[in-house]
Structures are given as structure tokens and as C-alpha cells.
Amino acid sequence: MKKLFKKRKYSADEYAQGILQGDRIILSRAITLIESKLHSDNELAETVLQKILPFTGNTLRIGITGIPGAGKSTFIEAFGKYLTSIGKQVAVLTIDPTSRKTKGSILGDKTRMEELANDVNAYVRPSASGDTLGGVHSKTRETMLLCEAAGFDVIIIETVGVGQSEVSVKGIVDFFLLIMLAGAGDELQGIKRGIMEMADAILINKADGDNITACKRAKQEYANALHMFAPQENRWNPQVLLCSAIQKMGIAETWQLIRQFEIHAKENGSFNRNRQTQNRQWMHDVISYYLQHNFYNNGSIKDVLPNQEQRVETGKTPAVVAAKKLLKMAEVAGDKKTCEIY
Amino acid sequence: MKKLFKKRKYSADEYAQGILQGDRIILSRAITLIESKLHSDNELAETVLQKILPFTGNTLRIGITGIPGAGKSTFIEAFGKYLTSIGKQVAVLTIDPTSRKTKGSILGDKTRMEELANDVNAYVRPSASGDTLGGVHSKTRETMLLCEAAGFDVIIIETVGVGQSEVSVKGIVDFFLLIMLAGAGDELQGIKRGIMEMADAILINKADGDNITACKRAKQEYANALHMFAPQENRWNPQVLLCSAIQKMGIAETWQLIRQFEIHAKENGSFNRNRQTQNRQWMHDVISYYLQHNFYNNGSIKDVLPNQEQRVETGKTPAVVAAKKLLKMAEVAGDKKTCEIY
Q1: Do B53 and A198 touch (CB under 8 A)?
Q2: Residue A336: closest CA among chain B residues belongs to which residue?
Q3: For each of chain B's 342 residues, which pLDDT tens digit applies?
């Protein structure tokens, strides 16, 4: 690897070449470029994306969620090490919607999976999640593509299962894994309503020592609950597995299950269909994001929105009347400003 | 009630007065006005809404969903008749996202609840659902407001639990009731993933004759499943009840439960908080709807969208590149056209 000077700027070709050669430093710089809010950076990032796109997609994308304390990092470290031990190249993108992107949180994340982060066949990167309106998965998706082009064949996207981001993550992965605990009391686990139904598998972690009996009972309960849901379009029956990330038990079994899923979904065509739908949806999400971004960042809208919201909340103005008033206002005031953010 | 001539047009004041006096014919005409796609009708409708808004809201809004065959209409007829028998005024708005709004489907809906529709203290009206992008609940919400101003104190919104509309309905009601069957095999019930978690109560219908044992078992299973979900913001524990709509059993109990919920939610403040959030969200939904409506109805977008979608689906163009290309195109081509639809 070349020694880089801080100020050195790459061309789109240099970025693309570096990424395709698996250069970690250029990959990291490219991800920073993707996450940049500068207009000029955005244009360059899109050119890079266009160049590397043909080299993406031949991978397995796994979303992993669960509340803090469920042992996600420990699991991902054990799982990632297992995958590199069987010859896989693993990229882990973590999304923490509760933390702003500071040096602190980046170091924090890296420290959490230190062993994996130091593995030459793995790459751990926290993903920016500053934007709330679709921004999370837009940037994360593009980061995922860069990692794929850099040669990683298993992409793990980790998110905390208590916010909105895991819904977005479901829309960008092939397999969605939910990590739960037994015996913590289901009400206390605080998993967001709706997440359980999105799971392709539920992993009950910390199934070790005195906790095994409780985990077996929880496994049965979750299996019963999953059974109540209508089948997914891909006809996959979500499974419940036990695991002890700390004792490295259930790790290989999880990979086996994911492989079973992959074979199942590729055989019945749903794997590819899902990817196509996700791509199309991604485009519409980006459109929706910018339409709303432009609207809500319009100066005159910003000024009057709180008052209109308050009038609508308290029943003084019908929602539709307030909405149209704001729409008209944006049209008159904001027409030309919107260009700059594209 | 006055005899009306077909061509007679009302002013906003005449609409408002008629509605507040509980005139069913004017109410029906006002709902048609709300559902109209004509620009001039929209303006009049919004003025009417503004006038009647102070007389809305002091009601209970109940969403009812379930797959076809679960017995929703039979239940609503029995439930509605029970409510009118204890002095309530009941409006039933039905949303069938699968049927276009034709004379046929309107008559069909009315026939389904004939007894209730002929009750002087009830009003049954199918709600148009032509628009998919948020249009369903936008029109239904406004229709609900008109019914409230006309003096109905329980509003029932019925929808088929297999599409997207019940998610919208959850966002406009105080209490969300899911009607299920026992013994049909959960996989066969085809209820959309995510719906069960939105329920404030699950009613297992057709709990009569030989079916009672199966229903009791199902009740336990659903209660276990509901237990797995995190509590809602309102701290209400969703309940499972048995009922036989055809034998009019479990009807009064359902009303008791809903009243319990109302007391609970009003005591802890979540009832009003939920309404305020819904109102604010409604405004943002309308904004989002029109932003997207304008974009996707732009002539030049319509022309190129299929090709861009196809390129994105098959991985030829990055989603973000296609999205921005389309956004730029809409901006250049469509600027002034958008005004007319507000």
C-alpha cells in the first residue's frame, strides 16, 4: 500500500481502481466521500459508484439487529472470525442511530470488535446516520456496494433494533437476523414492534451455563410466535436458533442456516427478485428523500412550519389545508434554490 | 329533510350547516365533494372542513380489520346495532382497496350491512380508495371528520387486512381491532405481517358450535404471541376475546373492552397525545403525497421512468444516479405545471 498524503485528492478512476484492488485506505476514503455532504463530493462519489457497480452484487448481505446488551458485537466478532476462517472476506457496517458520528464512537465501535477489525480478511466500519429521512440506508447501501467491489463476499450490516433504521436495513439485505435473549422478560427487551416479523431467523444468545433451560423455553415460545405470522413472499420459514457467542457455540450452525436460506431463495428465484425490488425501491427512496429534503429545508417553510404544526395538532386548521398552504408557499419561494442540493 | 334537485350546488356555509344539523343527504354530498378530484371541489371541500373542524373530535374512532371471510361485516352489523341500542350514533366507513369505486361496490357494501344501514342512528358509507399514495387515509380522515360533525359519536373504519390500507387506518383511529378465525390454519389466514402487532385487541370470531374448543385454543396462542411484543407507547395490554357475531355473543364484551381502553388512555394522557401526533402526521402525509404525486405525474418523468427503473433493477445504473437524473429532469421540465393540482 502506498503512503498517502492527507491532502491528496483522487480522481474517480483512482478511487475505482484502488477499490477494485482491495486497497483498504482508498476504500475508507471512498466511504468518507460517499458520506460527504459537499455537492462536489457527491458528484465524484456517483461517478465512482457508476464505475464499480458492475463488480458488485455477487455477495451475501446479512442484516443483524437486537437491543443493546443482546450481544450483537460479541456475536458478530465470533461469526466474522468463523467466516474468515473458512475463507470468506467479511465487511461489517455498523449503524448506530443514537450516536452522532464522532471520533469517539468510531473508536468505540472498532474497539468492540477489535479481533475482527485486525483480521486481514475483515473490515469493520461504522456507518454515518446523520440524516433521518432515508439517509441512513441510502449511504449505507452505497457503502455496501463499495465493500462488495473491494472483494468482500459477506457483508454484515449491524443496527440497534430499537429505532427506525432496522426497517431500512431489512430493505437492503438478503437475510435478516434478530438477536434476542431469554429470561430478560419479553416486555423488557424493548424490541420495536414489527421487527420480529421481519426476521428470517431469531438467534437466542447467551445460551450457556444456567441460562440454557430458559433459552430452550424461549426458543419454543419464539418459534410459536413466528408460526402465527403469514409466510413471506420467499416462502422461507423463519427459524429460531440457540447460540453462545462468548463460547463460540451455534456460530457454524447460524452460517449453515443462512446458507440453507441462500440455496432456498436462489432456487425459487426470490433471491434475485428481492434484490431487484430493493434496487428499484432504493431509487424511489432517494427520490422521496430529496423531494422532502428540498421542501423542509426551504427557508420560508422552516419559518412557518412550527406554527402550522401546532395549529393542526390542536385542531385549529385541517391538516389538508395546512399542507396545501405550505406546498404553495414552497412553490412560490423556493423554486430555484432546490438545484444546489442535487 | 328537504327534497334536493340534482344540479343544486351548495355553498360552504350550506354544507356546514346541513352537516351540523345531521342532514344525511348533505353529509353524503359533502363526502362526495371531499372525494372529488376537481380542483374547484377541493377548494370548497377545504372551506367546509375548516368550518366544521371545531365540532369534530369528541368521539371514539375504531379501526376494524381482518381477512375476507373473518366475518367483519357480520360483526360490525351486530356491534353497530348494539351501539345504537345503547344510545350511540354510529358511522361506518368501509375501505376496500381491492375494488374500484363503482356503483356496484357501493351497493354491495350497503347490502352487506343492510340492517345497520337502515338504522336511523347509523350511517354506512364505503370510502373511495383510488389513490394509493396516502390518498386512502387522507380522504377517509376527512370523511371521518364530516361524520363527527354530523353528530356520530362512534366512528368505525373497516378495512381488509391484506394490503397497505390497514397500516394507514391504524394511524387515524384510537383503537385498532383485528378479527381472526380459529382453526383456519394461521398460514392460511394471510394476515399481513405486521398487522397483528398493531392490534389493541384480537377478536376470534365464529366461536360457536363445534368451533368453541378450537377458538379457546387459538385465544391462548394469540395471547402468547401478543405477549412477545414490546408494549405500546400507551401502555395498553392488547387483549384477545372470543365472539360469535352471528349469535351476537361477545359483542357487549367487545364494547366494554374498548371503553376500558378509552378510560385507560385518557387517564394516562396517551389518547390525546395519539390524536395530536396523528394530526401532525396527517399534514406531513398530505405534503409527502403531493410532492410525490407532482413528481411522478410530470410528463417527462413518466416517459423515462420505466427505462430508469429497469436499469436500476438490473444493476446498470446506481439507484442514486438514476434518482438524481430524474429529479433534475422534473425540475427543468415540470416547474409550472405542478401548481394546478394544489
Answers
A1: no
A2: B331
A3: 555 556 678 999 999 999 999 999 999 999 999 988 888 898 899 999 999 999 999 999 999 988 778 899 999 999 999 999 999 999 999 876 554 434 334 434 445 788 898 999 999 998 765 544 444 556 888 999 999 999 999 999 998 655 556 667 888 899 999 998 886 655 445 566 667 778 999 999 999 998 999 999 889 888 887 877 777 788 999 999 999 999 999 999 999 999 999 999 999 999 999 999 999 998 998 898 889 888 998 888 999 999 999 999 998 999 989 999 999 998 876 554 443 444
Domain that holds residue B237: 57-268
Same domain? A18 vs A137: no
Instruction: From chain B, pick out residues whose CB is under 8 angstroms from the CB of A189.
Output: 230
CB burial class (10 A; 0-12, 13-18, 19+) of residue B200? Answer: buried
Q: Which residues in chain A have Cβ-Cβ distances shorter than 8 Å to B66?
A: none
In CATH, what number is assigned to the domain containing residue B44? 1.20.5.170
Sheet with strand B201-205: strands edge to edge: B122-127, B90-95, B154-160, B60-66, B175-181, B201-205, B239-242
- Write down the H helix ranges in chain A: 12-20, 24-35, 39-52, 72-85, 103-112, 114-117, 135-149, 165-170, 186-189, 195-198, 212-227, 251-267, 270-296, 299-313, 319-334
**Residues B209, B101: one domain?**
yes
Count of Cβ atoms closer than 10 Å to residue A83 Cβ: 23
B53 and A290 within 8 Å at the Cβ level: the answer is: no
- Do A49 and A63 lie in a common domain? no
- A220 domain residue, yes or no: yes
Identify the domain boundary among A231, A250, A268.
A268
The answer to whether the Cβ–Cβ distance between A282 and B224 falls below 8 Å is no
The answer on A68 and A39 residing in a single domain is: no
How far apart CA A101 and CA A97 sit, in angstroms, is 9
φ and ψ at residue A328, rounded to 5 degrees: -65, -40
B89 and B143 housed in the same domain: yes
Residues A191, A228: one domain? yes
Crossing angle of helices B270-296 and B319-334, in 10° steps, is 70
Q: Evaluate the CA torsion angle A21, A24, A25, A31 in order and state its sign.
A: positive
Q: Is the ipTM of this complex over 0.90?
A: no
Angle at A273 between CA A272 and CA A275, to 5 degrees: 65
| Count of domains forming chain B | 3
Yes or no, beta carbons of A227 and B331 under 8 Å apart: no
Which residue carries 433451560 as its cell?
A213
CATH code, domain carrying B253: 3.40.50.300
Any domain includes B283: no
> B47 and B186, same structural domain?
no
Are B99 and B202 members of one domain?
Answer: yes
Provide, as residue numbers in chain B, all residues whose Cβ is less than 8 Å from the Cβ of A194: 194, 197
Q: Which helix (H) or strand (E) holds A156?
A: strand A154-160
Residue A275 lies in a domain: no
